[in-house]
Amino acid sequence: MSDIELGPGKRARAAYSFDEIAIVPSRRTRDLEEVSISWQIDAYKFELPFISAPMDSVVSPETAIAIGEAGGLGVLNLEGIWTRYEDAQKQLSDMAKLSEDKAIRKMQEIYSAPIQPTLIKERLAQIRAAGLLLLERSHHNGLQSFIKQSLMQVLIFLLFVAQQFLLSMFQKKLRHLI
Fold first, then answer.
1. Could you read off the pLDDT of 94-147 as tens digits, one per residue?
2. pTM for this structure?
3. Whether the Cβ atoms of residue 57 and residue 35 lie closer than 8 Å to each other
């Protein structure tokens, strides 16, 4: 691949889209047992080379679970409709029945609702309960405070555990000296 100059000091690589690539069979036939389409991210292995788009119209918590059970990786949008409404499917169904101009107004109304941290926890727990790797997309400021709060709770717990460990070690040393 060659680099393309975009401007002074800025370069980019050429990329290809699906319609520019053709997969041609080789002269040698391989058995299914010899071929693997699995892939890996760090220690996580996936049997299906599929990652979903983190879009409300594409992935619900149920869809993320189905994709994971099939061997792929479902990505849930934590800034979307699934973390704003308990019954997000009703909102999507109502919007689908509207004309284009009314649907746009309805979509703006739907996405103006605040993100609910309790729904974030519920959606993540739902996917985790299925025993699947969880990948979520978020960059919302409201989520940052939720994440900071969660991390702070984890840090407090770890400090408590460390304190208990050090206390038990100190007590053992003290008993040994007496």
1. 888 999 889 889 989 999 999 898 998 899 889 889 988 766 666 555 555 555
2. 0.60
3. no
Compute CA distances 79 → 8, 48, 83, 93, whole Å: 36, 26, 6, 19
Extract the tokens encoding 92. Answer: 């999507």
Provide the token pair at 127: 């996917």
Three-class secondary structure of residue 18 per DSSP: helix
Phi, psi of 71 (to 5 degrees): 110, 0
Nearest to 138 by CA among 146, 130, 150, 127: 146
Please tell me which residue, 8 or 168, carries the higher pLDDT value: 8
Query: Between β-strands 75-77 and 135-137, what pairing exists: parallel, antiparallel or unpaired?
Result: parallel
